[in-house]
């Protein structure tokens, strides 16, 4: 494999890892938001 393709592959791998980490953070934040919304609805329903 030429040096050019090795560099392209390395950039693609690093970009993929960065996007993967960003997606994990987003999914975790979304889960917390949904949990908070569910608790607020439950509190209103019990009043």
Automatic annotation (TrEMBL):
InterPro entries: Entericidin. Residues 1-22 form the signal peptide. GO terms for cellular component: membrane. Transmembrane segments: none annotated. Pfam families: Entericidin (PF08085). Belongs to the EcnA/EcnB lipoprotein family. This is Entericidin. The lineage of its organism: Bacteria, Pseudomonadati, Pseudomonadota, Alphaproteobacteria, Rhodospirillales.
